[in-house]
Every structure is written in structure tokens, then in C-alpha cells.
Amino acid sequence: MEVPEKQQLSYLSNQRDRPYVYETMIDVLWRRTEKFPDKEIFIQHDIDGFRKAITYKELMRKVLKFSKFLISKGIKKGDHIAMFGPNSIEAVIAQFAIVMAGGVAVNLAMSIKDGLDVLNIFLETNCTAFVIDPGRKMELQEPIIQLLKTLKENTQKASPNLNNERDSPLIVLLRAWMVPLITPPYRRY
């Protein structure tokens, strides 16, 4: 029986002349960085006219630095890491760094003012760390302050097995130069 042309859109029904090459995002990033080190890979344009770009070489340098930081703080292969913040080059760096460190990025959006929705997803997905970006103009500062208060107040209640600072989630705040800061009550070594 012949398959109608409209249904032949999957990999199974369309034969390729050459085999598929299975590469991870990181494999592709390494290869493209070697080939085009000075080419811009991401460009961020904001509504206010702000423009920021990053080359493959810069991206790789920042991804390596941040992934090493995450590993040094105890992130292991398979750890779920929550991310909260605007779409930005910093978010791209964090995404690649999480994957390079072996983690799984869990992107979150806060829809309830007190941040309980984010806390519930954080706990439901068994996240061990939280990467937060307040934005270029600190536009997310207030929601983040509320979110951190909610995390502090509710983490112990929701996860009674977190009995000391060593078991608490790692909280990382990102800013313009990707200088990670650890907020005191939440540390994991």
C-alpha cells in the first residue's frame, strides 16, 4: 500500500542519502566555535533599542566558566536546574552551561504574585538548583525578591528532608558579566 504524499513527512518515511549524525548541542557548539570563532551566534535586540551580541568564542568561554562553577558547587549529571528570567544572552549562556555540566534545564515562569507556582514546579521536578536572572534593567527584581522569600519560607515545609544548609538548593543570581553570586541561606557544596 502506497502512503499518500502528505503523510510522508516523518524520518521513517523519507529515506536520506546519508545517515543522520547524532550530535549534542554541546558537540555542535564546539564544532562551530572551532570553525567560526569570531562570528556572532546570538544577537539580542530589546524594544528600547538596546543591542547585544556574542560570538561563538565568547559564548564558549562563558559557557565553560559557568559550567565549571556549577560543577564546583556540586551539580551532577541528571540534576534538574530551574531557570527564571527574561530571554537574554545570559539565559542562553546558562542553558548551555547547565547542559555542559550534565544538568537538565527546567525553564520557569511566575504567574502567581507570591511565587508559589514556581516553588511547586521547582519541587515537583526535583530541582537541586535555581538560576535566576533579574534582567538587564533589574525589571524582575521585585518578583525575584518575592520568589526568594517564598522559597525560604516554604522549602523547609515542603521538603522536610532538607535538614541543613548543605541539603538546601543552590541559588545562583546572574548579572551582566555572568558573575554568579550565591545567596546566603541557600548553599550546597
UniProtKB/TrEMBL annotation:
This is AMP-dependent synthetase/ligase domain-containing protein. Pfam families: AMP-binding (PF00501). Residues 30-152 form the AMP-dependent synthetase/ligase domain. It comes from Pinctada imbricata (Atlantic pearl-oyster). It comes from the Eukaryota. SUPFAM superfamilies: Acetyl-CoA synthetase-like.
